[in-house]
Amino acid sequence: MSDIQTDDAPVTASKLAGAAEQVGIPDPHGDTLLARAVTINKPAQELYDFFRDFANLPSFMENVERIDVLDDRRSRWVVKAPGGRTVEWVAVVTEERAGKYIAWTSEEGADVPNSGTVTFRDAGERGTVVTATILYDPPGGVIGKVIAKMFQREPAIQARRDLNRFKQLMETGEIATPAKNREEFEEMGL
Amino acid sequence: MKALTWHGKHDVRIDNVPDPGIVNPRDAIIKVTSTAICGSDLHLYDHFIPTMQSGDILGHEFMGEVVEVGPKSTLQKGQRVVVPFTISCGSCYHCNKHQYSACPNGLPADNQDIARAAYGHEMSGLFGYSHMTGGYAGGQAEYVRVPFSDVGPIVIPDGVDDDKVLFLSDILPTGWQAAEYAEIEPGDTVAVWGCGPVGLFAVQSAFLMGAERVIAIDHFPRRLELARQFGAEVINFEESKVYEALMEMTGGIGPDAVIDSVGLEAHGLFVDNVIDELKVRTFTGTDRIHAIRQAIIACRKGGRVSMPAVYGGFVDKFPLGAFMEKGLTLKTGQTHVQHYMPALLNAIMEDKIDTTFLISHRMPLDEAPKGYKMFHDHQNETTKIVLKPGMTAAAA
């Protein structure tokens, strides 16, 4: 079998080795690739504007404890990790096109080197297809990834849940929770 | 408050639990005045549905009075509402197509993984029906938190008795959708497997949609009698061979449309059913599907199969060959309750549909555990139990 993909499937669905190099993230950091797409019934510009204000992201990203916006392009991310710890990095926006596309990469010294893109593609009456493509180095290699998965902080699971929460927040103005009251909600979190 | 909670197979109890409150802006809190035990609650009672947790509050057929509203709710305190069992946002792609039970926004993101793995997609949230459907507290309680209260609950005019409208929450729309999915044409003969509430409402609905004949199949005489009262001909599968009877009754053609309102716990001593039962007991299969097999075999060539019945997992011996060779069409799915509620409320107000005939027992919430046991053990006499949280034991 060739290492070059010949079909029309997204490279992120590739079974072949080397897909991570073909994904086209500017200034890539990390060797583990994940991608998730979700269709949100809102205009691309509205979704982009909300997402580009990074201070908004913790409202639907469960494991992001805090994002400090440092300047127009740089932001510090404090993210929950297994075992009650946190990991940190500074993300830099490397490219952006208003209403369409954001690319970022982590600065030197990141606890979890990562980079990625978020695209907002107009889908007509269905709204906008939001695709997140992320390259990262899992902390602690394969074992770290298994442990993270046990604690449900595995990035692929988190990315899917976060995008679904983003969709819920933008489409309905709130995020679905089974909590019976505020006290239970505070215990459960997002 | 008091609530009916699940603790394991055949173990449900009345527990004291914390009161619900407003969490999200579109929420409302409903004080429950009537709530029914559903046939599908028995699947939980029998522990056929995975992802249940001890202490879960059951109940997805309920109505009551609005006692608290969030800032984005459009309801007002004091209004009486019937609440659909599906939790749907009203504004996503699926809701815009009135496919309410496919709404992904009512299902908490953390609860979507199981359905994604099992079914390929997440479905809407449901009240009181396992953590795969969201882990929401159900309505067999004194109070319930109702998300998306601006688009789900339907307001009931003053002076209309609970018992007339309660079944708008699930089983009446489910029976109606089942008949609609049978795509009935004038002159059609429709066969309905299972004369539980959904089957009986499907019988009623099929006639309203122009079916010339409806043939109802069950083994509980009381339930067959109710079907007969609506004009159905009946087959008791303990007395008669179903396929042979249907063929002769339809001049060798078979029913034009068949409706399976039995589901994953089919009764009866049939070879395939015994094998299914064995597989369920040995954890090599989950669903007993005798009724849908028989329905497909009996259905006329080019006919329609409608399947409101609940199935949860995997089956084998599905007659795919018969299905293909005869060119059948199958329509199924959880009910898009919100789509049907307004028209069915009108039909009730105009006395075109009566649902009260179904209720065999009314009891206080405190007696719900007894109600589950009765409904489970005595399906002939117990056609429907309605729990009244406001009722005292003395009044029952």
Automatic annotation (TrEMBL), chain A:
Highest taxon of the lineage: Bacteria
Pfam families in the record: Polyketide_cyc
Domain Coenzyme Q-binding protein COQ10 START, first and last residues per copy: 40-156
Cited CDD domains: SRPBCC_8
InterPro entries in UniProt: COQ10_START, ORF3, START-like_dom_sf
Family: Belongs to the ribosome association toxin RatA family.
Protein name: Uncharacterized membrane protein
Source organism (scientific name): Sphingomonas guangdongensis
Lineage, uppermost ranks: Bacteria, Pseudomonadati, Pseudomonadota, Alphaproteobacteria, Sphingomonadales
Automatic annotation (TrEMBL), chain B:
Domain Alcohol dehydrogenase-like N-terminal, first and last residues per copy: 25-153
Stretches assigned to the Alcohol dehydrogenase-like C-terminal domain: 197-265
Co-factor(s): Zn(2+)
Gene Ontology MF annotations: oxidoreductase activity; zinc ion binding
Key words, A-Z: Metal-binding, Oxidoreductase, Zinc
Record-linked Pfam families: ADH_N (PF08240), ADH_zinc_N (PF00107)
PROSITE patterns: ADH_ZINC
Family: Belongs to the zinc-containing alcohol dehydrogenase family.
Protein name in UniProt: Threonine dehydrogenase
